[in-house]
Amino acid sequence: MSGGVDSSVAAAMLVEQGFQVVGFTLKLWDAEDEEHARKVCCTTVMARDAGKVCSLLGIPHYTLDLRDDFRKEVIERFDREYLAGRTPNPCVHCNSKVKWGRVWEKVQAIGMEWLATGHYAQMVMNEYGVPALVKGVDGSKDQSYFLWEIPRPLLHRTLFPLGSFSKLEVRDYARKLNLPVAEKEESQEVCFIPRDDYRGWLKSRHPELEDGALSGNVVDEHGATIGQHDGYPFFTVGQRKGLGLGGGRKLFVTKIEPMTHQVHVGPEEGLTLRQFEVERLNLLSSDYPFTGENGYSVKIRYRDVGQPARLTLLPVDRMLVELESPVRSLTPGQSAVFYHGDDVIAGGIIC
Amino acid sequence: MNRAKRIYLDHSATTPVDRRVVEAMNEFMLEKFGNPSSIHAYGREAKDALDFARISVAKLLDAESDDIFFTSGGTEADNLALIGYCTRNRSRGTHVIISSIEHSAILRSAKELEALGFIVTRLRPDRFGEVTANAVEAAMTDHTILVSVMHANNEVGTINDLAAISHVAHTGGAVFHTDAVQSFGKLPIFVGRMGIDMLSLSGHKIYGPKGIGAIYIKHGVDLSPRQFGGHQESEVRPGTENLPGIVGLGVAADLCHDEMVSEASKLAYLRDELWNRLQSGLERIKLNGHPERRMAGNLNVTFDGVEGEALLVALDLEGVAVSSGSACSSGSTSPSHVLTEIGLSPQAAHSSLRMTLGRINSIEQIERAANIIIKSVIRLRFMDRPYSSSESSAMQAVLA
Description:
The complex is a heterodimer.
Chain A: H1 5-16, E1 23-27, H2 34-39, H3 44-57, E2 61-65, H4 67-83, H5 90-109, E3 115-116, E4 121-125, E5 131-135, E6 158-159, H6 167-176, H7 198-205, H8 207-210, E7 216-219, E8 225-229, E9 252-257, E10 262-266, E11 273-283, E12 296-299, E13 307-314, E14 318-327, E15 335-340, E16 343-350
Parallel strand pairs in A: 1-2, 3-6, 7-10
Antiparallel strand pairs in A: 4-5, 7-8, 9-10, 11-14, 11-16, 12-13, 12-15, 13-14, 15-16
Helix pairs in contact in A: 1-3, 1-6, 4-5
Chain B: E1 7-8, H1 19-30, H2 41-61, E2 68-71, H3 74-88, E3 95-99, H4 104-115, E4 119-123, H5 133-139, E5 144-148, H6 162-171, E6 175-179, E7 198-202, E8 213-217, H7 243-281, E9 285-288, E10 298-303, H8 308-317, E11 320-321, E12 323-324, H9 337-341, H10 346-350, E13 352-356, H11 363-383, H12 390-399
Parallel strand pairs in B: 1-11, 3-4, 3-5, 5-6, 6-7
Antiparallel strand pairs in B: 2-8, 7-8, 9-10, 10-13, 12-13
C-alpha cells in the first residue's frame, strides 16, 4: 500500500468482501530530499498515510524494508540497461521481482494466501479455474502493460480488486469511505529518480559519464559523422530533442551502439519498423498457439493503443513480431506486451 | 486478533497501568485536582500527595526523598543528567565515559555533548552485554568528569555491577550516573551503597503511567537545569507538576516495593519455561545476554535462518506481541546496535527477537506463545524462500 487512492480502495474493497486483509507498505529506496519524498509513493511519508488508512479499515499494517532487493533488481538493472544503450521499464521489474517476488515470498511465509494490489487490471478465471490476466475495464487507466512479467504460477494467488472499476468510481469509493487520500495527486514518474531527471541520476551514480568516457560520435544514416555527444546512455531510440545538432533536417535517434559509443540518427523513415524480436518472453497463458494465428495485438509502450500483429514463437523464450502496419520508434529495452482481445497472453523485452 | 486472546511479551517497551495505580490517579484528576503550589486546601492536599510519592520513589532507591526530582520520563532524566551535569562542570574537565549499548536517550545526549566540545568514550561491553569496571578504569583520564553506565540493558537484560563501576569512577574523580529505567522497581537499588550520584527512572516500565519519570540527584551534585520557569522541583525541573502521573508513579513504586521478590521469581520461572519450550521445539536458536545476571523477564533469542522482521509480523498476526532486534517499523535496516556490539553478526542480529515478560503473563499464555513461536519459526525457515524452489513447494504441501 502506497498510501495513495488506488491501493487504499483496493484494501477497503477486500475488507468489504470479507477477506482478512493485512496492509504492507514497501520501503524501497531513500529519497534524496524532502521535496522528492513528498512527490512520489513508496517512502516513509507515504507509509504513514497507508498506516492511517489501515487503522481506519481496522486491519494490521506493516512496513517491509526491501531496499536491498529493490537496489539489486530494479535500480542496478535500470542503470545497467542504459549503459547497454537500452531504455528499461523499471516498473515492470519492480512488479515481477519485488512485488510478485520478494514480497510474495515474505508474505506467504507469514501465512498470507493472496497478493492484492491497486493495479488497474483484472484476474479472471475461465471455466476450468485457470486464471487469466485481463486489461482493466477503465481503458485510460489500464496497467496490464506493467504486469506481463508476473510469474505465471502466481496468477492464481493474485487479486486486482480495482480492475472492474473506473478511476472515477474508485475516487468516489474513497470519498464515501472518508479515506483521507481521496484527493491525492497521482504519481507517474519513475519513483526513485528525483525530478524525473534520469540523465542527472545516471551522472551522479556513474562518474565515468561525467568524465566523458562514454562520449562518442553522432552518425547519420549514410555513416557520416555529423557531431559529438557526451555519453550514449543519455539517448533513447526515437528521441528527437536534445541531439545538439542545430536546425536543418528533422533527425531522430535510430540506434545506439554501446561498443563503439556511436549514436545513429536519421530521418523519421529510418525508425519505422515492421518486424522485430522480443526476448525474455513470459507466457501467461497456454491457450494460444500464436504461430500462424490471427487476432493478436502488441503494445510497445504503456500509452500504445495496441498494434495488430502476427506472432511466431522462437527458441528460447523469444517471439518474432510482424506488425500489420509499421510503427515509429521501437525502443530496445522497453516491454512488448501481447494481447488477444483484452487478455494479456505474454510479454517480453524488445531486442 | 481478538484482544482477549492476545499475548503481550513486550514489557520492556511498556507495561499496562496497574488498576490500583489508575484508581489512585483518578482521585487526583477528579477530586484532588489542586495545584501543589497553591496555598488553599486543594493545593495542600496536592502538595501532600506530591511529597508522599517522592517518599515512595526514594524508598525503592534507599535515597533521601529531597534528592528525587520528577521529570517527564527517562529520556528527560538522562538528558538532564548528562547535559545538565557536564555543562555545569565543564571547568572540572571535558571527558565523559558511557557504554556503547546505552539507550538512545544517553547515546543522543552524548552526541550533543560532543557538539558542545566534550570528548565521549563509548565502552564496548563483553559478549554477554556486561560493561566491566576494568573497562571503565582503563578509559578514565584526568579530565573525566562523568561516567554513565546503564543498570540493566533494555534489549538483552544484562545487569551491570554498578558498585564496582562507581568505585572506579569516584577513584578517578568523576561522578557516576546510571540509567535505571529497566531495573527500577525490579532490582534492589541502594544509591548509597552502590555509589550512585545520579539515576534515571521511568513510570511506564513499572505498571505506572507514561509521561512520568524521575531523576535522583545526590545532595551536593550540581547541574544546570534544561528548562526554566517556576520554583517547582527545586528549579531543577520547573513547570506545574504532573500530579496524576506523579501519584501514579508513587503507587506503582509502592507496589513494586511490596511485590518485587515474588514477581521476580514468577517472571524468572515463566521466562525459563518459555526458553525451555523453545529449546525443545526448535534447533539452531541461541540465547543472547548474560545466562544468569540478567533481568528476570528478559529473553532475547537469535533464531538462525529466520528474519526477525518477518517473525515479528507473523507473531503479531497470531496475537503474540514481541519486539525485534532491528527497528524495522521505523524504517531502518540497521540491526540492533546492542546485539552487534556484543558480537553478533548483522545477520544474526536481524534474526533476533526480544521477549519480555511481565505481571500480566500466565503459564497458560507462555505455553501458547511457545507453540505459536515454534510453529512460526519452522514455517518461516522453510517458506521464506523463492516460490519456485522445489523444497519450498514440497514443504508448502506438507504444511497445508
